Structures are given as C-alpha cells and as structure tokens.
C-alpha cells in the first residue's frame, strides 16, 4: 500500500457514506465479495469480531452453552410458525438442487435465523421443570437476501452473529431473561466499545416475527442516524405451541414453555467504525482494539539496533497490553504513523535515539492527538492511565453528542422539522398507531426506533397526546433515521 | 436422563458402529438434524471443537491471519480451475432462487472448499515479492452433498473446519509450508489428542482436486480402519494460473505464485471418540478434555455442607485445571460416576465425610479404573502427575496397537488375506498404477491410505516389486480400510 492509498480522501462530516466505504477497505476490515451484498471479512475486521465474541462469551458462559445447529432448514420447519415464515420468506435463499441426485424432495432454506430448528431441538430435550431454564447459543453465519442496498457490516446478505435461545417455566422468567441479555448487550456496547445505548422496546408492528415483545439497544451515530445494535425477544409460547416445547411441572402437569431469543451481529463493527472514526480513519476504544499500543522505532543514524532493542524492552514492560512493535525496515516512520492512525490504534509510542539515551518515550493519543514525553520507568502504569482515559473520553464524547442531538417535539411539523434540520433523536408522545408513524416515515424516512425503558425519559415533558393525531398517548417514543 | 439411558448397551469390539452412535448421542456430542446427513453439534461436542480451535490457532497465530470468506461461490468461479469443478461438482448444494426476485442470474455454490474465492482474493492483494508469503485461514462451515452413508462427525454433509490458504514465491517455499502445516496437524493429534499418526502423501490418483501433491496424517482406529485426519496440499501454480495470482520479483519480473491449502475438520472429533472410547463411553485425553477433573461430593448423613465446602476447596486447589464439582442434589453418586465416565472425564475425585475428616481424597482414573487415596496437601502436583500419565498411556496404547496391526505383504493374496483376517495396515511395495490398487479395493474395500514419509519405513523389507503386478516398484504404501 502506498502512502496515498493509506489516506482517507473525504471528510467524515462531508460524505459519511464515501468515508465509511474508504475506511472499511483501507483499514483492512472488509472487502466486497463476488456475490453482490456479501463481504469478505479481512483479518483486522476478524480480530475485532473475535474480541467481541470473546467478551460476550465471557459474559454468558456460566449460564449458556455454545452449540452448532445446521445451516439448512427444511421449508416445512419454517412454516410451522406463521410469523416466521411471513417475516422471512421474502429474504430466504433456497437450496433446491444438491449432489448427484439433483432435485431435492423439499426445498431447504439457508438459515435466516434458527428459532425453528432450535425450537425442535428444545422440544426433544426438555421433559421436566428440572430441565429449565434451558439455554443454548450459537455463533454462526446467517443469510438474508436483502432487496435494499447493502454495505459492509451494516447491511449484508450474509453476516456472522450470535443467537441465544432459551426456554423457561413462566412468562416472568422469560421476561427476566430477555432483559438480562439486553443488559449484557448494553454492557458490551458501553463498557467495551465505548458506545452509549438506549434500551427500550420496538413498537408492536415492528417486532421480530413470532415475538410478543422485541427489546433493542439503539445507538446514535455522529451523522444523526440510529443503529439497532442488538435485539432480545420474548417469544411467549408461540414457538412452544408450534413445536410442542412442553415441560412437566412439580405436579406432573404438562405446560408450554416460554421461549426467548437474542442476537448481535457483525453489524456491531459497522457501529464501531461510524461511532468513533474521524478524518484519518478508525479510532478504536482500547477495550476492543486488537492492538492497544503500537511502538514505532525511529530508525535513523547509527543507533538502529539500540532503538530496536529498546522498543522490544518497551513491549516487554507493557506485556499486560496488546502491543505491536512495527519493525518494518522498508517503511518510513511517517508511513507507519499514518498506517496505525488509519487502523485506529489508541496509543502510539515513538522510540528514537534520543528516547533511548534519555530513557524516555514519546506517546501520541489517537483520539485527540495529545503528545507526551514519559519516563520509561513506570511506563506500564502510565499507559494504563492513558488508555482508561481514552476509553472514558470516547464514551463521554458520544454521550454528550447524543444529549445535544435529542430533541422533543409536540406536533408532526416539529418532528419533521427536527429530523430534517438536525437528524438525531426526536422524542415525542405517540398513540400506538402504525399509521401515525407512517406519516413521519413517508415524509422524512425516519421511524420509531424504540419506546425507551428509562422512567425519567418516559415521564419527561413531551405532552400526553400523540404528536401526530392528537389522541391520548401513554407512550414516549424516539424517532430517528436509521441504518 | 435415567441411569438406563446413560449406559452404552453394546460392546465396542462387538459392534463398533452401534457403539459409536450410542456414544455420540448419550455423551451429548451430537444429534441428527432434520436434513439428512447434517448434524447438530451439542454443547459437549462443541466444547471439544472449541478446544481444538484454540490449540490450533495457538500453533499458527504468529504467521497466519484469520479471516472470513463468503458462504456462496458463483459457479463461474468454481469453473475457473477444471479439477476443482470436476472434483466437487457432484457434491455441491446450489442456490438458484433467493429473495423477492427469486431466480438468480447465476447459480451459487454453497462452498465445498474455498480455494477459488480465496485465490481471487489473493490475486487482488498480492503485488510484489514483499507481500509473500501470504497466509490466511478461516474457520467455517462447509457443505458436501455426500451420496454415501453419513455418520455424525466422521462423514456429514455439513461440517465445520479450518482451511488455511497460502501463496509463495517458489515451489520450494510452498513445499516447506505444506510440510510445516502437516507437522502441526501431527502435533495436534499426537500431543493434544493422544492419537499417533502416520505422515505421508496420497497416490497421484487420489490427490485433492487441483493439487500437485496431497499430504495426509492418518490414524489407525482400534477396529482396524484408518482415518484421514488432516490434509495439506501443494497446489503448484494451478490456481495461480486460473486466477492470475502473480507477484513482481526483485527485478520487476512477473511470476506466478505457488499456493497451498490445508485443513482439519470436525471429523477429528470422530477420530477422538473411536480412538480412545471404551464400553463405558468416551475416554478423553486430558489435553483435549473440556473437563479434566470432576469432583463428586458424596452427600450422605449430616455432613453435607462440610462435604460441599471441602469439594469447593479441592476445586480451588486445582485452579490450574479444568475442574467441575457436580453438586446436583437430585442424583446419586452412582449416577454421577456413570455420567462422567460416559463423558470420558480423565479423573474423578470422590469427596465424602471420611475424606473431609481425614483430609484425604479418593481418585479414580477413567482410562484404567485405578483408584488411589491421596492426601489433600499437595493434591495439585499429584493430579498433574496422574493426568500426564493418562495422556502418555493413552498414546502408548494406540501406538502399540498400531505396531501390532501393521503387517507386510509381498503378494496380492497376502494383502487381501491380511486385510480380511486382521484389518489394520498392510505395508507393501506398489508400482504406482491405480489399477493395481483397484484389485485390492474391489476385493476387500481397502485402499492405499498413504505413501509414508518415514525413511525407515520406506527402506524396510517389502521387496522392490509391486505386490500386485510384479513390476519394479519404488514406492512403499500402506493399504487399509478407511472411514
């Protein structure tokens, strides 16, 4: 890659779409695949996904087992739950011919989601209340043949995700589970990826097919659009009825289970890019960064070996962090600075002959460019402090931006005007009717992204009548354009 | 699961096929999927696969990057390399209809292997000799629509695997790579899974489609059949020519790259089950076991709380091992003994009121049933010693068995007779002609599993004429029935 190729040639706030495309490709996150709408996840993107996996597995591993379910689902299984088939049929890729014999007896769906096949597994493996709660998760590839425009990570026909599926004795237990996993998603986004989220539920007409309640974590991107970052669904007894998932209670009475499902996908990498990136490329929060610290030896004059030696010593001293020493002799320090800025490494440490002599290090923060000269002694503690501050500041910046970009509206005109002029979230009262939302959608392509759980938000002053039709309203909702 | 359901009802050496089916299901490794030939990998099976992943990633991570390539490959890509299309066409599952628009312009293969799509990626990303060696790996699901009988792990239409793909400057570098990865597979099987392997190459007519050389690690199962446990292929310049994978050398001259590919799959779990299992179920070598030590508290009389407390203390003391305390109060100790024997946990520790009083522990080895009473003090060192011995003994047992079941033959009759009477490996001289192999295949369904690398083997006394046709032979080969 030449120095030219490293540079992002558009400004993020002038053309976010082109900026995004360049960052994805130039930072080595993903590339287009020969099949339209699919992507190749390149090594640096994969490292981020592997860290997300590791962090989320850690959160759930005490309670949830990982398994692997088949890619192909018979059409008759999808048809057992009517909402699933209606919801996903338009997006399914079908296998009708396979192997030497060709034509199959029944066509097979490449999984658009696995409720039906896992519900069947649950029905075979749950007998008694002692088997509950029953929890299983898989990390897998998913295929949804989107008709709309696709973009790497944000909307692709094939993506990677985690789907958790659980069964419980009661409605109450299922609700608890749904909220627990939603809380873990919020933790993953806020504490690990430094992206503040709103937690809430989707309107009735926008629930997951087959769900009684769909909850969501939403994050506002700097360009004023919202990303649905993870969802957790209460499936009630819908799948239990369709697939006979039953348990015998303490009195030998048979009951239907209450099931849930919940997922996050490689879309979260799209959110990460958009949330923090700047005109130079990616900005990675330390907790998710594949590399937290890059050491760049400045190889000039006669002291090259000493500089390299000292660089390795720095790495050793920082062994509790993910550190890379960029020893490439073909590239200039300037090239390396650009490269690792593009890749968003939170902290750069420069080691030159002067640094070796003075036992000092020059550090540069990726997020705000702050440069410091630090003593080598005690460098590990100092780096820890800096990285913690980076993580904190990245979060705070987005939180502040969300605050500034959340506006209230009491009339349809105010909603439209706010979305049109500023973007961001518009908080308003809503009667619950889909047609009222449609009036906003038709005009400015914004939709209700969630009904927030937060009590302060709900009791806040947005009036008690639907901003659109004037009917009495019990719901506070957030409108926004979405990815 | 009742105690009845835990028991394996057939002996391994009386009906290995039925034994295998029972172990897979009863130990919670895998279940059948609604689509014939596919499987559900259940949590215990998945834990084993995750350990294999972790161990192998560790071996390659310094040199090889993980990525993710698309599931769907356009037919025109498969067709670019003629051997690939001939080799895999009869096993491909095709997507011809997808989404709202239905019929696709070109049919798409669910990947039977990813050479073609990764070769395309290489051709776009390799420019100069500085980009070489180029190494990339993915962990992914694969679909091969087998016509023959399928069995969980050993032969399934969908399986999970790792496929590494590399590009090099020269034939020599590619050969080095092929052998390095084969060596790592051998290490994985021998040191981690305690299964001795033979390393060698496949006959010309049995190479991977598109390869110039296919190397293999083969392991002999106790029932006398061989399993191809991993393969590593030199692809020469075949894919480089089909996909124009070129690099500019130091003199600005364009050259074709030499590429390789190498893979191991969930089949390795099948080998693990067959290699070590006994009439009570699985026997897991400690290095691969999801649980190395199970602590079973004997909850009788008044001291239940003290027994549980002491059990937890044992777990703490053994914190460097993967330990589970089975605290379930609904099940008897006898039930638990059976359960963890079925799952092959290498060491059981029993903690009852007597043990608490005497600060002693009763240990029972899964592999040979050896029972010991050990002092609590210093238990960690003692357990380490025992587990090392288990790992060693499991390996030695198979090595001895392979030695005893490797016979030489100098005539066709001797080959057939040995295979028919004993199974195992038959070592013989072979001229190189497929039709000579066919004579053995037709009679006893045994084939040439490899041409061993080992020099001692090759110079050993099997004559210098093909045992089948009598022509001059330079090759020593191993015949065996295969999985």
Explain how this protein is built:
Two copies of one chain form a homodimer. Chain A is 36% helix and 27% strand. With 483 residues, the first copy, chain A, is an alpha+beta fold. Chain A folds into three domains: 3-276, Bira Bifunctional Protein, Domain 2 (BirA Bifunctional Protein, domain 2), CATH 3.30.930.10; 293-389, Anticodon-binding domain (Rossmann fold, 3-Layer(aba) Sandwich); 406-482, Translation Initiation Factor IF3. A five-stranded mixed barrel of chain A has the order 9-10-11-23-22. In chain A, strands 16-15-17-18-19 form a five-stranded mixed beta sheet, sandwiched between helices. In chain A, helix 10 links the parallel strand 15 (293-297) and strand 16 (323-325). The longest helix of chain A has 26 residues, at 379-404. The mean pLDDT of chain A is 95. Strand 5 of chain A pairs antiparallel with strand 5 of chain B, so a sheet runs across the interface.
Biggest interface between chains:
A-B, 54 and 55 residues
Number of distinct helices of chain A: 16
The percent range for helix content of chain A is: 25-40%
Oligomer: homodimer
CATH class of the largest domain in chain A: Alpha Beta
Q: Give the name of the CATH architecture of the largest domain in chain A.
A: 2-Layer Sandwich
**Sheet/helix structural class of chain A:** alpha+beta
- CATH topology (fold) name of the largest domain in chain A: BirA Bifunctional Protein, domain 2
Rg calculated over all Cα atoms of chain A? 25 Å
| Percent in strands of chain A | 25-35%
């Amino acid at each position: 890659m030449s120095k030219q190729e490293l540079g992002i040639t558009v400004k993020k706030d002038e053309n976010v779409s082109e900026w995004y495309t360049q960052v994805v490709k130039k930072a080595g996150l993903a590339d287009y695949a020969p099949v339209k709408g699919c992507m190749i996840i390149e090594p640096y993107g994969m490292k981020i996904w592997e860290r997300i996996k590791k962090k989320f597995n850690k959160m759930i591993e005490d309670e949830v087992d990982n398994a692997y379910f088949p890619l192909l689902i018979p059409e008759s299984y999808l048809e057992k739950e009517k909402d699933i088939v209606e919801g996903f049929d338009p997006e399914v890729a079908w296998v009708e011919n396979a192997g030497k014999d060709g034509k199959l007896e029944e066509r097979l769906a490449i999984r658009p989601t696995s409720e039906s096949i896992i519900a069947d597994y649950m029905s075979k493996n749950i007998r008694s209340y002692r088997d509950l709660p029953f929890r299983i998760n898989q990390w897998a590839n998913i295929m949804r043949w989107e008709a709309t425009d696709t973009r790497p990570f944000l909307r692709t026909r094939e993506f990677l995700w985690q789907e958790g599926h659980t069964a419980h004795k009661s409605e109450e237990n299922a609700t608890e589970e749904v909220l627990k996993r939603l809380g873990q998603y919020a933790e993953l986004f806020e504490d690990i990826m430094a992206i503040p989220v709103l937690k809430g539920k989707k309107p009735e007409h926008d629930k997951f097919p087959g769900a009684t309640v769909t909850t969501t974590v939403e994050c506002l991107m700097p360009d004023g659009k919202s990303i649905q970052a993870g969802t957790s669904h209460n499936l009630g007894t819908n799948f239990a009825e369709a697939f006979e998932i039953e348990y015998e209670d303490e009195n030998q009475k048979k009951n239907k289970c209450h099931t849930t499902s919940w997922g996050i996908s490689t879309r979260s990498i799209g959110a990460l890019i958009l949330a923090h990136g700047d005109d130079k490329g990616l900005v990675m929060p330390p907790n998710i960064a594949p590399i937290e610290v890059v050491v760049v030896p400045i190889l000039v004059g006669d002291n090259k070996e000493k500089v390299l030696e000292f660089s390795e010593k720095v790495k050793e001293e920082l062994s509790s962090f993910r550190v890379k020493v960029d020893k490439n002799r073909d590239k200039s320090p300037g090239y390396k600075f650009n490269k690792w800025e593009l890749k968003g490494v939170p902290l750069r440490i420069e080691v030159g002959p002067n640094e070796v002599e003075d036992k000092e290090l020059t550090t540069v923060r990726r997020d705000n460019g702050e440069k410091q000269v630090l003593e080598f002694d005690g460098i590990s503690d100092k780096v820890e402090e800096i990285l913690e501050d980076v993580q904190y500041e990245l979060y705070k910046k987005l939180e502040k931006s969300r605050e500034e970009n959340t506006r209230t509206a009491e009339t349809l005109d105010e909603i439209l005007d706010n979305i049109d002029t500023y973007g961001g979230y518009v908080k308003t009262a809503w009667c619950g009717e889909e047609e009222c939302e449609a009036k906003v959608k038709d005009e400015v392509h914004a939709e209700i992204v969630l009904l927030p759980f937060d009590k302060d938000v709900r009791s806040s002053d947005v009036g008690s009548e639907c901003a659109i039709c004037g009917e009495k309203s019990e719901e506070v909702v957030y409108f926004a354009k979405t990815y």
